[in-house]
Structure formats: C-alpha cells, structure tokens
Design a protein that fits this description.
The protein has 303 residues and is an all-alpha fold.
C-alpha cells in the first residue's frame, strides 16, 4: 500500500519538475530575461516554502549556526542561481528537449566531482555510465552523426553549465545533510538565492507586469508546481521507498519536459536526438541501479 503510493508520489514529483519549461517559456513571452525568471522562481519558491513550514514545521526554519550559511550560499548562489540561469538560457537559445537532455549530464558531473572531493571510487560502472552520457550528449547536440544540424555552441555550453550547477547542489548539500533535513536545505537555499537576486531585479521597469494576473500565475506557478509541491510530494514518497528506486523513477522528468516541448511548443526533436536522450537517461539509471545509499537521494536538486 505504502509502496504503491510512494511510487506514485515520486513519479508525480518528477513529472511536475518536467513542467518547468512550460512556465519559463510563457514568462519569456512577457519579455522577462533568463535571470529575471530565475529571480521570480527563487522568490516565489522561498515565499511558498516559508509559508508551508511556518504552518507544518516551524522548527525546520531555525538556523543551527550562522556558520552554516556557507552551505546555503553554496547551494543557493553557486548551484541554484547558476544552474537555473544556465538552464533557462539554454531553453531560450535552443529547445526544451535539448536543454533538458543536457541538464541530465548532471549525475555524470556528480561522479566526477565526488571522485576528486570525497575520494569516492570511480568504478567500471560509473565509467560505463559516463561514456553513455558523453555519447548521448554528442547525439543530442549534433556532433554525431556529422550530418546532423548541430545545436549552437552557446546553447551547448549553457546546457552543460546547467548540468554542472545541478551537480553542485548535491555536492554542497552533502555537507548540509549532516545537520539539516532536505526540506530545510531547500528552503534556506531558495531564501539565500532570492535575497541575492532581488536587489538586481528591475522593479521600476517590470512593476506593471508583476501586477498582471497571468504573470503572477506563471511566476508563482513556477515556484509552486515544479518546485514546492514537486519537492514536498517527492520527499514524502522518498521516505516510503528505496533511495535508488526513487532516483530511477525520477527519469520520468526529462520525458515529460520533452513531450511538453514537442507537443505544446512544436519544438523539433529528431529521432537521433531521442536516441541521445535515451542514452543519457539510461546512463543515469545504470549509475543508480546498483548504487547503495552513499549520498542520500533526497539531496536531489529541485529543477
């Protein structure tokens, strides 16, 4: 009973993550830049999570030590802001399917960083998965086959940048998880991110847009559905099932994102690129399928 419900909640959370491109694309139509959309997402998410925790678990909002802010500066600025900016820019420069595929190089970067920072073993399994990720990325961006129309180098770099930012969240949060719950980490992360971004937001230029009901829907929808709700249901499901299984189930996320890009925004995604995405997702599953709980999966980035 619990397992079935847990699986459903994990897949629901992952599917909600996959809808992020829909909100971002619609905010672009109002003239917001990628960094402004990052600000809207970080701020709306911080507000929603604070409200949720004040009602549900006020103690979760307590910072145990001022020194711990260094963890959340890492997750909030070096990961969330950098990651979201790169991903949103990649969506703007290319398509949702391509940006999502490049984002999913993140687990490969986690393995590389963990090898150097935490001396985690670089096994044959990880090497095989990294090779699959690299090959899949080459298919997605058009390096293979050579006659495929290539994605622009700028969008490739931003897409890979989002993968690096994705990986950094797991790296920084690994330290924070020793003292804080995953929900606390996410909340503090978005608080730091929003506080860092708000001073640079052009309120004088965008004030009329910010009172537009549709803009508010997309802005708070971005913070609510693919972020706050997605995270809460995913975490609840994670508590009722194995971490490795949860990681595999979350690969529904790029599938949903790709379908939204193709069917809602009529974005092109070739058969060869589909093979590339399948290789990347397959590599992620392969890395998780025999993986023990070396790093709690609940440190997964909310994308």
């Amino acid at each position: 009973m619990y397992l079935n419900k847990a699986v459903f909640l994990i897949m629901l959370g992952a599917a909600l993550w996959g809808t992020i491109g829909w909100f971002v694309k619609n905010l672009y139509t109002y003239g917001f830049t990628p960094m402004e959309v990052v600000t809207l997402r970080a701020t709306s998410t911080a507000i929603l999570l604070i409200i949720y925790l004040v009602i549900k678990s006020p103690k979760t909002l307590y910072l145990k030590s001022v020194k711990d802010l260094k963890y959340f500066i890492g997750t909030g600025i070096f990961s969330i802001i950098f990651f979201n900016y790169c991903m949103f820019t990649a969506i703007e420069l290319s398509t949702i399917p391509v940006a999502t595929a490049l984002l999913y190089t993140g687990p490969a970067f986690v393995s590389i960083f963990s090898y150097f920072l935490f001396k985690e073993a670089f096994t044959k399994q990880k090497l095989f998965a990294l090779s699959g990720t690299l090959l899949g990325t080459c298919f997605v961006v058009g390096l293979l086959p050579l006659n495929l129309n290539s994605v622009s180098m700028e969008s490739i770099l931003f897409g890979l940048g989002s993968g690096v930012g994705y990986a950094l969240y797991s790296i920084f949060s690994k330290f924070a998880l020793k003292k804080y719950s995953s929900l606390s980490i996410t909340t503090f992360t978005f608080i730091i991110a929003s506080v860092s971004l708000i001073p640079f937001f052009p309120f004088h230029e965008k004030i009329q847009l910010l009172i537009d009901p549709e803009v508010l829907f997309y802005a708070f929808g971005l913070g609510l559905f693919p972020t706050a709700i997605a995270y809460i249901v995913y975490t609840y499901g994670l508590n009722k099932t194995e971490a490795s299984k949860a990681s595999i189930l979350t690969t529904i996320e790029p599938v949903v994102a790709t379908l939204i890009g193709i069917f809602i925004f009529q974005e092109t995604f070739t058969f060869v690129q589909m093979i590339g995405m399948s290789l990347i997702i397959g590599a992620v599953i392969f890395m998780q399928i025999k993986r023990k709980k070396e790093m709690p999966t609940e440190s997964k980035l909310i994308i």
